[in-house]
């Protein structure tokens, strides 16, 4: 008797569990709740609940696409680009969110510095039938990635086929052309030359690297210690502690001036290329945000 009752209870629990899984999901409410979790800074709950929803049985293909898009674009806005790239990649080409997901997915890979992946993704899909501006957006995004890879041949080839009618997209592409010109003409200065110049005239290597303000202070420091060392040598002799102290400081500043000049060339070039790369990335975000807002 008891055994029969227990079996009946187990059966009812299983059936009720299956019914719960088959209850239709309200995709709008679930999406709103996900956005609430995100707005409340509950990122762990957002991730867990989103994963749970995607694994729920009975979801239609359209519902999965919607959830993947919401989770992906929210992670994109949070600059969690690895997660955004993953979820946006699962949005099918039959979804109304596909085109937007496609572009944001490519940008996410660029933010992760996987430029080859981003470039390849943009090359996979034919946007020529989507209208002139959409196709031009693709060209703009792809040419920007080519710049980030320093592939100037690909950049020039793509830019020649850019013919957008949208004024904001035209504006962004003009900026991209300016960044390309700056990258192409960016002078690659030699740290060895900078060091050699500062060995001859302290601070001259810093002028060569473009740090004029530091050049003057470097020259004054080295010249002052050199003058004090010469004065101490002439008045007190080479064995006097004061001369030894000034001469040691002079050597320290003189060698530091040479080393600093050589290092400043690399630092300056890194700063310039980093700033240009940042501007190129901003130029990839803006037209996509404007077109799909």
In short:
This protein has 293 residues and is an all-alpha fold. Helix content is 79%, strand content 0%.
Provide keyphrases for this structure:
293 residues; mainly alpha; 14 helices; 0% strand; elongated; disordered N terminus
Report what the structure shows.
Helix content is 79%, strand content 0%. By secondary structure, the chain is an all-alpha fold. Among the domains are: 19-99, no CATH class; 191-279. Helix 4 (61-77) runs antiparallel to helix 5, helix 5 runs antiparallel to helix 6 (98-111) and helix 8 runs parallel beside helix 10. The longest helix has 51 residues, at 241-291. The protein is elongated. Mean pLDDT is 85; it is low at 1-23.
What's the helix and strand layout?
Blueprint: H1 2-22, H2 27-39, H3 43-54, H4 61-77, H5 81-88, H6 98-111, H7 115-124, H8 132-148, H9 152-160, H10 167-185, H11 191-200, H12 204-209, H13 212-236, H14 241-291
Helix pairs in contact: 2-3, 2-4, 3-4, 4-5, 4-6, 5-6, 6-7, 6-14, 7-8, 8-9, 8-10, 8-14, 10-14, 11-14, 13-14
